[in-house]
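Protocol step 4 of 5: obtain the predicted structure for the target chain.
Materials: sequence only (see below). No template structures provided, no constraints applied. The aim of this step is simply to have a reference model before the mutagenesis design in step 5. Sequence pasted as it appears in the construct record:
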Amino acid sequence: MAFNPTAPTVKIVHREPTRLAALRHYGCYSRIHETWKAIEPLVPSTAVKFISIFHVDAERNAPESLRADVAFQVPQGYAIQKPLTSLVLPGGEYVRTSEPQENVQYPNSWRVLLKDWLPRSGQRPENIPTFEEYTAWPLPFENCNFHIYIGLELALDAPA
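Step 4 output (structure tokens):
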């Protein structure tokens, strides 16, 4: 694959497991903003990390079979109540975009990571969901900035 001057730079980072409160999204990922609107009244003012977790590959599956979670990191002392569910984002090694990506970079950023960087890196994706972590509350979506994370098995002989 040829060099892409608009490709995001990436780095490999270690993340600790993160406890989240989540609301499930079903269907096309381009409509995930609707689930963010639904979760908004349930988010405490002390929440600091906002994450979309993608469980199904949109390129290989029909829109009606897609599912994701929109979530926030659970602040100390916060009791998760329905309709929210508790989940833990696995810790481990991830490839992450070095700089926050703007919404207009969205398709290119994902494509470069999955179709270019990952195959060339010698790394293999871990069998865990990919996710985006937003730098602030993600609505309106057209103005949000985010980092992309893809879990890695971390091949010890592969270049970082």
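Step 4 remarks: Residues 9 and 158 are 17 Å apart (CA to CA). The two ends are 19 Å apart (CA to CA).
Proceed to step 5.
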